[in-house]
Design a protein that fits this description.
alpha/beta; 32% helix; 25% strand; three-stranded mixed β-sheet
């Protein structure tokens, strides 16, 4: 809730009307699309660093969106925005990212959404100025409200970490190919029990033209429209030709026949 990117985004959104802020009370980086069902979720009223009222939850970013849209607030919402994440969310990152999956949760409930991330390095520790990204967010939100997003579509926006006058413009992109260099660290605690950290170097990516990674590398804001239909349509016809049993009854009959043969 004290993240400077959240404060910058909240301030950038205020000119658009009444806004409500419900965010996690701690970092959920890499949390993915979470739905907390086996414990209660707590919410407390807090204030941002500039004194603006907000609410903090012990749930994940996607939990916070669900709480807001399922009735914690009495209002109906026109748009959900998440961020500003201090690191980029590119390629396969979108399935890990709490920032992006918060926007995905909004789409599930029929509310358009935009996720904003900053293309910094070194775990976001070098970020000192979110204002260029906040201004980009204003521009994109204004356009999205004017033109309306297609139903079931969210925008994943990545902004290069450059002074505003050095950002070259906007590109509408597809997801690129992220390159991960994760490693497993095996350690032993003071009581002799093993434990593990998943670590490694900061991921890179292939800067192919037309992709989010390519746009960010060239100094452009990347705007990637996403939807939640993960169907691999090009595989449907081929898999449909597999000679599979019609149902479990046939499978069970084949097993019974084989068992009878063995008994003989």
């Amino acid at each position: 809730m004290t993240a400077p990117g959240l404060l910058a985004l909240a301030q950038a959104m205020r000119p658009f009307g009444d806004i409500k802020i419900l965010a996690p009370d701690h970092n959920w980086s890499g949390s993915g699309h979470v739905k907390t069902l086996e414990r209660p979720l707590r919410i407390k009223e807090v204030k941002l660093d500039d004194g603006y009222p907000a609410w903090a939850s012990d749930g994940a970013p996607s939990d916070c969106v669900a709480l807001a849209l399922l009735g914690f607030f009495d209002e109906k919402f026109d748009l959900v925005v998440s961020g500003i994440n201090p690191m980029p969310n590119l390629g396969h990152d979108v399935t890990y990212s709490g920032t992006v999956t918060a926007a995905m949760e909004a789409i599930i409930w029929g509310v358009p959404a935009i996720a904003f991330s900053l293309g910094s390095v070194e775990n976001g520790l070098a970020v000192s100025d979110y204002q260029p990204t906040a201004h980009v967010a204003q521009e994109i939100v204004a356009s999205a409200m004017q033109h309306s997003l297609p139903m079931g579509t969210l925008l994943n926006v990545n902004v290069p970490m450059l002074p505003e006058d050095q950002i070259k413009g906007f590109q509408t992109t597809r997801l690129g190919l992220r390159v991960y260099r994760d490693r497993l660290d095996r350690r032993v605690d003071p009581r002799g029990r093993p434990y593990y950290w998943i670590g490694g170097e900061t991921p890179s990516g292939i800067p192919e033209e037309g992709t989010d990674i390519g746009a960010l590398t060239e100094g452009y804001v990347s705007i990637t429209p996403l939807h939640l239909d993960l169907t691999a349509y090009n595989a449907i016809q081929g898999i449909g030709k597999w000679q599979l049993p019609v149902n479990n009854m046939i499978t069970n009959q084949l097993l019974a026949d084989n068992h009878s043969l063995l008994e003989r």
